[in-house]
Amino acid sequence: MEKPAPGAAEGPPSNALQRLETPGTGRGMSGDMATDQVNGNGNVSEEPMDTTEVTRSEHFPALLEAGLPQNVAEKLDELYVAGLVAHSDLDERAIEALKEFNEDGALQNKSAFLCGVMKTYRQREKQGTKVTDSTKGPDEAKIKELLDRTNYTLDVTTGQRKYGGPPPESVYSGAQPNAGTEIFVGKIPRDLFEDELVPLFEKAGPIWDLRLMMDPLSGLNRGYAFVTFCTKEAAQEAVKLCNNHEIRPGKHIGVCISVANNRLFVGSIPKSKTKEQIVEEFSKVTEGLSDVILYHQPDDKKKNRGFCFLEYEDHKRPLRLAVG
Question: CATH topology for 140-257?
């Protein structure tokens, strides 16, 4: 990752990962700026300083010494201070992964992604899973090149990577697509990402969004994705063009029109829970819940069978709950 030269002007920070400036950072001034600041007596007029105090943890210097990018170190330290992540949760593998974290604005929702990275490493540590070169995720340079070309956004969380939704107005400015515009893509190689998927599917027509399902423990995809097009015609064309397409040597993907499923199965429910209690609990963590289907014990109507089905207004809402 290239770092700006000393004294070079910095671009505006990402909305999701704000740069917190501390007093006395000593930013460089260009020659023109210095000339403009000097008055007739040869004295440099003082520029107002930002006196806002920023709370830093005792581990912040260690993050910088470890080689983390300034933006990433600052945001991670905010998570320390907020108590969302402890410094002890990080090992050398986590630090190495964070050194490669994209800080140029290509990724959105960075706070959620950082939390996900930490939770993933804690799970890996418990399970004894090792990080290898093959599980480091996508080539960020290629992802950035794709986003620069298309002007789409990329929202990355621990459960999925969402490209677009909505697309840029220059691509499509109409209403959100209805049923029949989404396709299901299966048999995707686990180490394949948007830089290979988007160029393939955009041949069929303008893409509304592409949602690649992710495995947070491995950092690889789960082998399937959903692509919503702006029109039904584009979705049908994608099936014709891409079904059984050899996306890599010997690797053929399967593509079909997605069938909406608004129902989500939930198991391991305490048998004493009522329908009203289940509705109340799940309404706190998800939206669009329209009904709960609960089955009772045949010999005791006061107890359920330990599972239920959640009915949603549309199939994307239970998917968001399932992938976190």
Answer: Alpha-Beta Plaits (3.30.70)
